[in-house]
Amino acid sequence: MGNLCSSCCGSSSEESNLMPSPETRRKQQLEAAERRRMENETRGIKDPERVKRQQQRSEEIQKREDEAARTGGQPVLRWQQD
User: Fold this and answer.
1) Is the pLDDT at 10 greater than 80, yes or no?
2) DSSP readout, the chain?
3) Which residues does 25 contact at the CB level (< 8 Å), separation at least 6?
4) CA R_g for the chain
5) Residues 49, 52, 58, 60, CA torsion sign
6) Which residues contact 65 (CB under 8 A, 6 or more apart)?
7) pTM (two decimals)
8) Do 21 and 27 touch, CB atoms closer than 8 A?
9) How far apart are CA 46 and CA 51, in angstroms?
């Protein structure tokens, strides 16, 4: 029975045309993985640019705090309540 099925399915040369080369397949998989990563990063976020700006501001504030801690001085601005 197996011989009948293989004879009607086509030759091996036709099958090789359907499968991309290993290099092409790797490239496609890499592109798909990159697309999934980008989609996951922005999932649930209406404005991704706003989030990036907030992250940059947060990093800048953290850098300033670290610099102030290294110099040993007190921060320039302090909250005071009268």
Assistant:
1) no
2) -HHHHHHHH--HHHHHHHSPPHHHHHHHHHHHHHHHHHHHHHTT-S-HHHHHHHHHHHHHHHHHHHHHHHHTPPPS------
3) 19
4) 29
5) negative
6) 75
7) 0.40
8) no
9) 9
Residue 28 CB partners (closer than 8 Å, separation 6+): 20
**15's tokens:** 């099958």
Residue 46 pLDDT: 81
Of 67, 70, 49, 48, nearest to 59 (Cα)? Answer: 67
Task: State the amino acid at position 80 in one-letter form.
Answer: Q
Average the pLDDT over 43-62 and give the result.
Answer: 90
